[in-house]
Amino acid sequence: MAPDPWFSTYDSTCQIAQEIAEKVQQRNQYERNGENTTKLTVTIRALLQKLKEKIALLKDLLLRAVATHQITQLEGDRRQNLLDDLVTRERLLLASFKNEGAEPDIIRSSLMTGGAKRGAPNPWLLEEPEETRGLGFDEIRQQQQKIIQEQDAGLDALSSIISRQKQMGQEIGNELDEQNEIIDDLANLVENTDEKLRAETRRVNLVDRKSTSCGSELPSFPQRLSEARQQVSLKEAGPRSLWWQTRE
Questions:
Q1: Most confident listed range (24-33, 41-50, 210-219)
Q2: pTM for this one?
Q3: Can you tell me the distance from the alpha carbon of 140 to that of 161, in angstroms, rounded to the nearest whole number?
Q4: Half-sphere exposure of 6 toward its Cβ, with a 13 Å CA cutoff?
Q5: Which residue among 86, 104, 136, 185 is least crowded, i.e. fewest CB within 10 A of its CB?
Q6: Looking at the predicted structure, is the pLDDT value of residue 240 above 70?
């Protein structure tokens, strides 16, 4: 795996800061002994300028990594803390170089450690997180890659859940469409049945009106029955009535 350019630059920047601390300590010793410090002063000025440029490069690399989502937000915050520490050390070194105030304790402690080494705790990191304390840059990069992989797995699981929910939503939508079609068919059937019912009602009303008008012109059924009985009685009594009339 290719080394992370940010950590490579950070490592070299820490080494420059360590070298400046050593040079400042040496210059101060020369001044106390009355020796010439011109050469050391020029060297320290050049190193301070180089340190400033490296810090600016670290800021630019961090902004790009965060903007392009190459690192997580947590990793971005951690790197920003490391960068802030470097900026603080730069100010301390500059103040010590200009003999402004007492010599910082960080310079003496860094000299006692024998300099910063890859894989060993960096003396410039006063508040390094517990999870990365004692780790080398390669190990930190591996830890970062592991975190990113875990986040990718979580995102994949979330994407799968969202896809299933989307599919369920589509199926529910299709079922609703089918139910709406059934409801529309029932509505049309009810409307047709209602129209037929109204038509039959009109026909019944028409037949009823015709029956009523015809019944007022013809004799009622009891009257026709009475007339039929009279006619039958006359037919039966007709011959005997004629015999009596002949005898008389």
A1: 41-50
A2: 0.43
A3: 32
A4: 21
A5: 185
A6: no
30 vs 199: CA distance, rounded Å = 122
| Orientation angle between helical segments 105-113 and 5-33, nearest 10 degrees | 110
Distance CA 140, CA 133 (A): 10
Contact assessment for residue 40 and residue 97, using Cβ atoms and an 8 Å cutoff: no
Q: Within 10 Å of residue 51's Cβ, how many Cβ atoms?
A: 21
Write a three-state SS string for the chain. CCCCHHHHHHHHHHHHHHHHHHHHHHHHHHHHHCCCCHHHHHHHHHHHHHHHHHHHHHHHHHHHHHHCCCCCHHHHHHHHHHHHHHHHHHHHHHHHHCCCCCCCHHHHHHHHHCCCCCCCCCCCCCCCCHHHCCCCHHHHHHHHHHHHHHHHHHHHHHHHHHHHHHHHHHHHHHHHHHHHHHHHHHHHHHHHHHHHHHHHHHHHHHHHHHHHHHHHHCCCHHHHHHHHHHHHHHHHHHHHHHHHHHHC
The pLDDT assigned to 42 comes to 93
- CA 13 – CA 5 distance, rounded (Å): 12
Sign for the CA dihedral angle at 84, 86, 87, 91 comes to positive
